[in-house]
Amino acid sequence: MDNTQKKSNFISSVLVLFFFLCFFLSDPALAEDSTFSLIDQVVVQNHNSHGRTLSKLFVFGDSYVDTGNNKIFTVESWKYPYGMTLPGIPTGRYSDGLVFTDFLASYMGMKSPMPYKQWTGLFKWRVRNGMNFAHGGTGVFNTWIKEPNMTTQINTFKKYIADGVYNKRDLARSMAIVALSGNDYTQYVLDGGTDEGFRAFIVKVLNQLEVNLREIGKIGLKKVVMLTLQPLGCLPNKAISLSYEKCDEPLNNETIFHNTLLQQIVQKLNSETTDTLFHVLDLYSAFLSVINKSAGETGSTKFGNPLLKPCCIPASAEVLCGSVDGNGVKQYTLCENPTGNIFWDPVHPTQSGWSAISSALKPSIDKLMLCNQLNIHTQRPSSASVATS
Ligand SMILES: *[C@@H]1O[C@H](CO)[C@@H](O)[C@H](O)[C@H]1NC(C)=O
Ligand SMILES: *[C@@H]1O[C@H](CO)[C@@H](O)[C@H](O)[C@H]1NC(C)=O
Ligand SMILES: *[C@@H]1O[C@H](CO)[C@@H](O)[C@H](O)[C@H]1NC(C)=O
């Protein structure tokens, strides 16, 4: 046997082992139960029957991933027209229907994890595919909204672990997804922060995010996935000054600065730990590719005109989509069909926007779902891969 042959034999035996592990670790207890809610029925469309090692998803962050943790009587996500497309009533999601978490869970072949605020503590099977700890409007620091920041969300997760809801074995098969979509930056502006000081504040936010990610890493999850910051300059609340036709490039530039620091942090965290793998999922590029595709003169223009105009537009800066005055009169305008818009309200995508953005991310998500050996080989020296396999 020559050297290359030896090598390829070694590789194929590694691959056999790899598939065996995938098969062995897949959890038959995850077969879906019959009590679906309407949303679950739509969401679990991608259920893949082949083995998977990641059987639980834990969610941290803000409205881009929150599926209903915020307090019912205080936030717009629990008011009409939120949820108008699916399921037809508000669910606490900041969209006309599904949000990113729902599509991600679907790609992972599972139901969207239950918002922890909606779990009574009974029936552990209801949270066997994970839990969602995200709260719309929050950041790494406290913001205008009286909801738990990321540190508090992580501490809540730790309490459930201390209570025995999840054990070590569960966590070793779990993935965390973390979204930080810019509420800290909105708060910075509300606090009268200057343009000159903005980069220094971005650094501050990312330093705190690093602390938080390291904390999640210590919990012992298999993977921790951080979303890059979406192009803030393309959000309708910014693009409104460009007739909803173009993105604000200087602000996108600041977003790129945030994302560059994020990449560095993730590399640093990966060099520190061996048990948890940190990944970045590039929401920024996914947003831009959807916007570019729709703006392109060639190809099918999927989303309407102007491209960055949201479906639901508040009547003034003092009200929100969903606000009504004392007489019950709507304080916003609503488009006829949200499927024609990328954006739902001044900062959030529609369900169909999320669908397009998520499918742009699907190849990366599929890679995350592969067994870990493959990733480790691309990220770590081989000695580390032996130690962690
Ligand atoms: C998160 O919230 C808690 C409770 O309000 C607060 O004590 C803590 O300082 C906050 N964390 C950060 C990093 O701002
Ligand atoms: C983008 O940021 C870089 C520094 O990171 C700066 O040199 C450049 O002028 C910025 N461009 C715009 C359009 O703001
Ligand atoms: C989108 O278009 C902009 C400007 O035309 C370009 O700079 C950017 O690279 C494109 N991004 C993607 C992800 O296609």
TrEMBL record:
Gene3D superfamilies, sorted: SGNH hydrolase (3.40.50.1110)
A Pfam family that the UniProt record links to this protein: Lipase_GDSL
UniProt keyword Lipid metabolism, yes or no: yes
Top-level taxonomic group: Eukaryota
GO MF annotation terms: hydrolase activity, acting on ester bonds
GO process annotations (BP): lipid metabolic process
InterPro entries cross-referenced by the UniProt entry: GDSL, SGNH_hydro_sf
Signal sequence interval, chain numbering: 1-31
Family recorded in the similarity comment: Belongs to the 'GDSL' lipolytic enzyme family.
Name by which UniProt lists this protein: GDSL esterase/lipase
Species assigned in the record: Papaver atlanticum
